[in-house]
Design a protein that fits this description.
single chain, about 425 residues, alpha/beta, Rossmann fold, 7-stranded parallel beta sheet, 15 helices, binds adenosine monophosphate
């Protein structure tokens, strides 16, 4: 199928050709004709599937159909809501790229940037707004933004927005939109929470599903390295150095861990930069730019940075720490093997984190291949059955308090086990939001 066959106008076809795209991706083939028809769409599509173009191209065409060049100042006719500043910046760039030959004006509305400048730009008028919910609400409160003329609403990465606790903001924004509008909801996963949001937001939607839920990209080769915690950094440096990897995205659990690993890798002679929610927006942009342009080979990131980062042909992703939430494994791995390219995704797993691996493999319904010889002392990734809370110890007959809040020995951590894994519900993320 060609882009012409989807019913896009010449100006959009030209923009698509400028990007070198020859064939629409599956989500584009399915979603573009439906959106052009004016239907509401609920799409289950991960980053890397070409989903941004799948809503941006028809959105631009729909706006063009009813475009009034006499309308001054411009009114906001399309609103695209995304969870993070980085994703907002990428979607904003995509709107500008695909709309390069069209008469529309787009504004980016995100936290971490000067509100005064945004206010001035918004007051001048624009047709399309790409925003994170928090900052958009700030502008609404100050009466800088008026959503009464919105014709098309897009919620991108809706599941991530829910995880980040944006539901109240989304509802507040929904209340300000005209009832008569087209709504598009894109989400990597479609859990019940998203279905319920979709039922409130969408009108008789068509469901579009492109990749199987929670399936990682087929062209990504995944491996697990079982390794003692204390050797992880050494192994990572070795893998990067010996394979001469030039662009590696490394995921860690905490911001502190990201800073520490950045320092250690630099000490090992590897050009590295860290990206996490405690960094200023300027530092985050700079880190991304250094990584994209090859000034550094390694980007050490927390999960805040994991979704929506569109880095072309990213060949290597390393889980230095496994994610606490199994679904995040799929999202992290989604950074590589995009748009048909092949990728490698490695996980360095210490015995303490074996239960997280179990949860991930349960979700994927398959085992990730193990690398048998890591060059280090072999470690077992078998999860040892944790005793039930307060159950008498088999040897001593005394009650076992390992799962009570206070560790039995000062400084000792409660043993990790499947019970801990089961408790790992998603928690709202407070930092790094728009
Ligand atoms: P997305 O899922 O929107 O983050 O897009 C992932 C990547 O695929 C981006 O780098 C796009 O530029 C690229 N892309 C989108 N559509 C196509 C297409 N039809 N052919 C080739 N690449 C595409």
């Amino acid at each position: 199928m060609s882009f012409q066959a989807l019913g896009l106008t010449e100006d959009l076809l030209k923009a698509v050709a400028d990007q070198g795209y020859s064939t629409p991706t599956p989500v584009q083939q399915k979603a573009i004709p439906l959106i052009l028809e004016g239907r509401d769409v609920l799409a289950g599509a991960q980053t890397g599937t070409g989903k941004t173009a799948s809503f941006t191209l028809p959105l631009l065409q729909r706006l063009l159909e009813n475009h009034n060049p006499e309308q001054k100042p411009r009114r906001i006719r399309a609103l695209i809501l995304v969870p993070t500043r980085e994703l907002a910046a990428q979607v904003y760039e995509s709107v500008k790229t695909y709309g390069a030959h069209l008469p529309f004006h787009t504004e980016l509305v995100v936290g971490g940037a000067s509100i005064g400048l945004q206010t001035r730009q918004l007051r001048r008028g624009c047709d399309i707004v790409v925003a994170t919910p928090g900052r958009l609400i700030d502008h609404i409160r100050q009466r800088v933004v008026n959503l009464a003329n919105v014709e098309i609403l897009v919620l991108d990465e809706a599941d991530r927005m829910m995880d980040m606790g944006f539901l109240p903001e989304i509802k507040q924004i929904m209340g300000l939109l005209p009832k008569q509008r087209q709504s598009l909801l894109f989400s990597a996963t479609v859990p019940n929470g998203i279905k319920s949001l979709a039922s409130q937001l969408l009108n008789n939607p068509v469901e579009v599903e492109v990749a199987k839920q929670n399936a990682t990209a087929e062209n990504v080769s995944e491996r697990v390295y079982g390794i003692g915690k204390e050797y992880k950094r050494e192994l990572l440096s070795y893998l990067i150095g010996s394979n001469n990897w030039k662009q590696v995205l490394v995921f860690v659990r905490t911001k502190h861990g990201a800073d520490r690993l950045e320092k250690q890798l630099i000490e090992d002679g590897i050009r590295t930069v860290a990206l996490h929610g405690d960094k200023t927006q300027g530092a985050r942009n700079k880190a991304l730019e250094y990584f994209k342009t090859g000034k550094v080979s390694v980007l050490v990131a927390t999960d805040v940075a994991s979704r929506g980062l569109d880095i072309d042909d990213l060949p290597h992703v390393v889980n230095f720490d496994l994610p606490q939430v199994p679904e995040d494994y799929v999202h992290r791995i989604g950074r590589t093997g995009r748009a048909g390219a092949s990728g490698v995704a490695l996980s360095l797993v210490c015995p303490e984190d074996a239960y997280l691996l179990v949860a991930i493999e349960q979700l994927l319904k398959r085992q990730i291949p193990r690398v048998a010889d890591t060059g280090y002392e072999p470690v077992s990734l078998k999860v040892i059955d944790a005793p039930k809370k307060n159950a008498p110890n088999k040897d001593t007959g005394k009650k076992d308090f390992r799962h009570t809040k206070k560790p039995a020995v000062r400084g000792a951590k409660p043993a990790a086990g499947p019970r801990d894994g089961a408790k790992n519900k998603r928690k709202p993320v407070s930092k790094g939001r728009g």
